[in-house]
Write a structure and sequence with these properties.
The protein has 1 helix and 36 strands. It is mainly beta. The radius of gyration is 22 Å and the shape is globular.
Length: about 400
């Protein structure tokens, strides 16, 4: 009861913040979401305690519960397309779907340990790691699993493969191993931190990142030959990271204890804090899936699901005044110049998908203000550019065949 009261007070302190991340769902202590996987901005799955599986086809606006056929806690899920996916969990549990989760079938793992992480590179080839040095690999969609152990490792917590041959695993206490031949052989990786590592993410054959407790972040840009320490301060006191996900080699998000969210746009060399979401202050976030440079979903305790559709970079408030326009339009922002907030009015004459994005003078995307289906209406979006540097920017609206560009000036 005391913890709930503290969370409530903290939420009140933050409820005036314009959310970069939006709370989509929150349940009770019994609901514990361990892993989230999106294959597109719209389609994704969440797994967690008591065999729960949720599925969305609209970016998390609504979620449908799927029958997993198990009551074991599911710790990780991997999908390679809209149909083929595998989830793993407690007591050697492996379940598989070939129809997007409409039905799930149990598979024999041959082990009884807690399976913590799964990574598939195509519908047939997948890898699983877990407690007591467990590594499992399949090349036939899970009909059979080959077992392997690592004598020098204690507790394999995470696995990430970028293709059928290149992959890495991480032991929370002893570092990482890399394979270039599908797990036939492994080479030890020297990681420059003594902190416990929880998650590893391979972006391609050269770039990878691992995160862990006390804000630990290490990166490699040469396939693990050398690792660089890019650790940051944790959340409250000694908060740390549970999960990291990259949309490409530059854009990534890490989440962790007490609602901690950090974002990078330069491959992990520097990280910026993102505003915590009201009602999630103090809630551990266990997993994040970053689909592209703007769309991300994170999940955690109390059945928490939060989402960003603007990369969490800026604070955006979008309002519809209820009137119906006759044509599409994009108006000049006001005030202009501005610091740090400005308003942009726009009109949607026909329901459909609308984007408004901000670019710097070099054409690099700086922020996404609108990125969703919009009904007919006149809108005003408030853009807070507090995290951008002074200069000239351009904002572009696209809606069907309509495109318009205008210039704005940020002066700090």
């Amino acid at each position: 009861m005391k913890k709930i009261f503290i969370l409530f007070i903290l939420a009140l302190l933050y409820n005036s913040v314009n959310a970069q991340w939006v709370l989509q769902q929150q349940g009770t202590l019994k609901n514990l979401f361990e892993c989230v996987k999106f294959i597109s901005p719209k389609i994704g799955w969440v797994v967690g305690s008591e065999g729960i599986i949720l599925h969305t086809t609209d970016g998390g606006t609504t979620w449908q519960k799927q029958s997993s056929g198990t009551t074991q806690t599911l710790m990780s899920v991997s999908f390679t397309d809209a149909n083929n996916g595998t989830a793993v969990g407690d007591s050697g549990t492996i379940i598989r779907t070939t129809n997007g989760g409409a039905t799930w079938q149990s598979q024999s793992s041959g082990v009884s340990v807690l399976l913590l992480s799964v990574s598939f590179t195509d519908k047939n080839t997948g890898n699983i790691v877990g407690g007591t040095n467990t590594f499992l690999r399949t090349t036939d969609g899970g009909s059979t699993w080959r077992s392997q152990t690592f004598k020098s490792f204690n507790y394999i917590s995470s696995v990430s493969f970028v293709n059928n041959n290149y992959g890495m695993v991480i032991d929370g206490f002893n570092g990482a191993l890399k394979t270039t031949d599908g797990g036939a052989t492994w080479a030890a990786q020297s990681i420059p931190t003594s902190s416990i590592q929880n998650c590893i993410c391979m972006i391609d054959t050269n770039n990878a990142i691992a995160v862990g407790i006390t804000g630990s972040i290490v990166i490699t840009t040469n396939g693990g030959n050398t690792w660089l320490n890019r650790s940051v301060g944790g959340g409250f006191s000694t908060g740390g990271f549970y999960s990291v996900s990259f949309a490409d080699k530059n854009n990534g998000i890490a989440v962790g204890q007490y609602g901690l969210i950090k974002r990078t746009t330069d491959g992990g060399n520097t990280w910026s804090s993102q505003s915590m979401v009201a009602n999630t202050i103090g809630v551990h976030l266990y997993s994040v899936s970053y689909v592209d440079s703007v769309n991300g979903i994170a999940v955690g305790e109390f059945g928490t699901i939060i989402r960003t559709s603007n990369g969490g970079v800026t604070s955006v408030v979008d309002r519809n005044n209820g009137t119906k326009p006759n044509s599409f339009s994009l108006e000049q922002n006001y005030p202009n110049p501005f610091n740090p907030s400005t308003a942009i009015n726009y009109s949607v004459a026909k329901s459909g998908f609308v984007t408004i994005k901000v670019y710097d003078v070099l054409g690099k995307e700086a922020a996404t203000l609108v990125n969703e289906e919009k009904p007919i209406g006149n809108y005003s979006v408030e853009f807070n550019a507090g995290k951008l540097t002074s200069g000239v920017y351009f904002y572009v609206m696209r809606a069907g065949a309509f495109t318009e560009t205008k210039k704005l000036l940020l002066l700090k």
